[in-house]
Amino acid sequence: MAPYDKGARQRADDRVRHPNGTPAARSSKHRGFRAADPSQPRQKQRWDAEERRGRSAQGERPARPNWEPRDGGQRRDDRGARGFDRNDRGARGYDRDDRAPRRSDRDDRAPRRFERDDRAPRRDDRDDRAPRRFDRDDRAPRRFDRDERPQRRSFDRDDRAPRRFDRDDRAPRRFDRDDRAPRRFDRDDRAPRRDDRDDRAPRRFDRDDRAPRRFDRDDRAPRRDDRDDRAPRRFDRDERPQRRDDRAPRSFDRDDRAPRRFDRDDRPQRRDARDEARTGYVPADDVKLEKLQAEATIAADVEGVSFTDLGIGGNISRTLAEMGATSPFPIQAATIPDVLAGKDVLGRGRTGSGKTIAFGAPLVEKLMEHGGGTKRRMGRAPRALILAPTRELALQIDRTVQPIARSVGLFTTQIYGGVPYGRQEGALERGVDIIVGTPGRVQDLMNKGKLDLSEVVVSVLDEADHMCDLGFLEPVREILSATAEVTPHGDRAQKLLFSATLDAQVASLVSEFLHEPSVHEVAGEDQASSTIDHRVLVVEQRQKDQVLEELVAGDGKTIVFARTRAYAERLADQFEDAGIRATSLHGDLNQSRRTRNLQLLTSGRVNVLVATDVAARGIHVDDVSLVVQADAPDDYKAYLHRSGRTGRAGKQGTVVTLVPRGRRRKIEGILENAEIEADLVEAGPGDGIVAELAAR
DNA sequence: AAAAAAC
User: Fold this and answer.
1) Chain B bases under 7 Å from protein CB?
2) Which keywords does UniProt give here (predicted)?
3) Are residues A508 and A363 located together in one domain of the fold?
């Protein structure tokens, strides 16, 4: 056991205890708290000191003992000490707080235990099912605070493993789920809707309008002039104009490049890249930048086209409509016919352009064709696999794909790490049709003989370029190798690769696993058609934290990206100390906390999330108005993905990147590769520009 | 170099 665990235990021992012997809840909002509950959670943007002291029930930020007064003077020291406590408290302390009281709850429920077992599985179902809600309603009275329910769920989740076996009994229920699936989303995260938003027509159509503007990049010229007004703040003004000048032609270059993409010039390079990947050689940036040849779909061409026109069946089309996808977006219109035709497909659509449905809908349709009478056969092996680089993204994808699958009687299951095996293994034993997961656990279950991929005839890699990164590539290769080569009908099994930054980095996978793939992208999807305003602030290192605090103090939802887990945690801590409702998301948190913390942002209970790059790709949160990069991204791809968390659904977004003086060149290179124009402006605490950006 | 992804 790690040393800090001892510390946590010690602290727990120091804690006030309940009559039942468990540590007392520190918060009045906690179930385990016995005193009268004086305050309901507030929806205000800020907490005062007292609230902060007692808000542990909010979860994320570890609780500080109520009796431990805090003031500015103590802050630093406390923070230092907390750094340690934090992880413990975060994960353990917090959970423990939840559990202790729960156990008492359970004691109360002792007679109901059997019911409980039943419930556990439902919770799983809950992810997808309305009925559960009713269960929840029933439970509500038991809880002291409704606000705590989300915590419970996650908690329950951890416990679910053993209960899973009950699930078998519920099989019949599952079918009920089909009808309810769509509702589920309303409840939990609304995730599907979010996806819908990603895909919403308005946006795309806007793009249509914007596509032509692309050429107007010169329109930006006026902007630049505007910026010229800000000139005094800029760094190296001299260089800027030049960059911009280069860029205007660039957009045209892009068009010129189109023909290049059609050239099969990439192929030799792919082979090289593959060899390089095998030898552990990391391709240089310019190799990654190499555009894959792609067929560009023009948004205007898909106007008036329906999912049915593309070959999607009635049930699925109706479900898509219920989810808000009434008509296909360009990337969907581009890739769906080819997927239905049985081809391998590479799809590049920018962040929030509807990629999930672009592969999800035709995948389900395709399984219907393949499926025949094997549907719902107990213990049937999965026939489709969707892999994503993070657990949160896998969950989000499942929230979109599951209702589509259910609409035609197919089942999905999530296979990802950080949660008990039992439930996942149980689902596999019962039989599922579509696996949505992350590479590690999929590989794990495969090796344990619990997951048979030999009948998988459609495999999808979301964020495919990232899945080719060191550390991902080998597991992914192993997994893909375990899938079927041909369908029962003798057709070639399909592989679909999608990403907003799909490039030659996937070359090795393509050459090894894909057969004459069709490559699609959408015309006009460049930064000039984006709704995102990019800014770069050049700050003194020692002033950075203060500038960050000022930036996130605004009212809008904000995601802050930090390079390391420790820094993310520290920043979240600092923001909380400043009275800003903030939480964190990174790999040092256990999965229930990760899920919960993300939920805190989506639900609006906090409006600042400090994350590592775990949140950079694919994660959709409604109405994020500001993305702050506390540390510059690694490369232009990271920049594009991080910034893609805002400006979604056609809304305005702002991305602010902080860089120390010494890193100016690096960020300029990144911006150039990303084909983004942004001024570098010197800024410090209290500066007008900081306040202006914070106000967005 | 860090982060992610299995335990």
Assistant:
1) 1-7
2) ATP-binding, Helicase, Hydrolase, Nucleotide-binding
3) yes
